[in-house]
Design a protein that fits this description.
Elements (H helix, E strand, L loop, with lengths): L1 H5 L1 H4 L17 H10 L23 H11 L6 E5 L5 H10 L2 E5 L3 H13 L5 E4 L13 E4 L5 H15 L5 E4 L3 H5 L5 E3 L9 E5 L2
Parallel strand pairs: 1-2, 1-4, 2-3, 4-5
Antiparallel strand pairs: 5-7, 6-7
Helix pairs in contact: 4-5
């Protein structure tokens, strides 16, 4: 799997299931491979509770997770915090491939529990999944924060305010995917590493 991190720039230029460079929002064989290794099991829809501004869960396509690793050059000194982590695809794969620490913040207890079980099966002891609200969770040890549009409106606004307060204490990086990218791009305390696009990973760095 480590080869795909190094190959992520090339993968971004190859048409994927949506016939777009990098594959757009669709899934491909990498998702089947990782799902088979991690044995993800999603709770039934009737078991999941969401507030009005919380978005229906979808996992980040694996090729985009590899691209995130390539863009951020994560290593064992980093801690990635996934805000709205679902079944934990991003922290689990990042930790397995880079040695970085991972924290998944997930309000839905059943998703957080399934992610913990997966981390235990794979002996990934640098990954933690917390059943918490991203608006009040402890973000103090994170160096990289990831959002795949887990919420919109006032919830997203409140979380971005939390991240801005974290950035006042140290430099952080924020990675986004999906519609939230355009909202995050408006934050003046962040600087985009490249022109942000909603259908691929966007990297933002806090300004000094």
């Amino acid at each position: 799997m480590l080869r795909w991190i190094d190959a992520s720039p090339e993968m971004e230029e190859v048409p994927g299931p949506d016939n777009k460079p990098g594959g757009g929002m669709g899934y491909d064989y990498l998702d089947e491979l990782v799902s088979g290794v991690f044995q993800f099991e999603e709770p039934g829809a009737e078991d999941v509770r969401r507030e009005a501004e919380m978005v229906f869960y979808q996992p980040t396509p694996v090729r985009h997770i590899f691209n995130l690793m390539g863009l951020t050059a994560l290593d064992e000194t980093d801690v990635l915090v996934d805000l709205g982590s679902g079944l934990g695809h991003v922290p689990l794969l990042v930790s397995a491939c880079t040695g970085a620490g991972g924290i998944g913040i997930e309000l839905e207890a059943r998703y957080a529990q399934r992610a913990r079980e997966c981390a235990q099966r794979l002996n990934l002891n640098k990954v933690t999944f917390l059943e918490e609200d991203a608006r009040v969770a402890d973000l103090s040890i994170g160096t990289v924060f990831y959002l795949y549009t887990p919420f919109v409106g006032s919830i997203l606004s409140d979380v971005l305010k939390r991240l801005r307060r974290e950035a006042a204490t140290r430099r952080i990086r924020v990675c986004t995917y999906g519609p939230c990218t355009s909202v995050v791009a408006e934050e003046r305390w962040l600087e985009a590493a490249a022109a942000p696009e909603t259908d691929r990973i966007a990297l933002f760095c806090s300004r000094d």
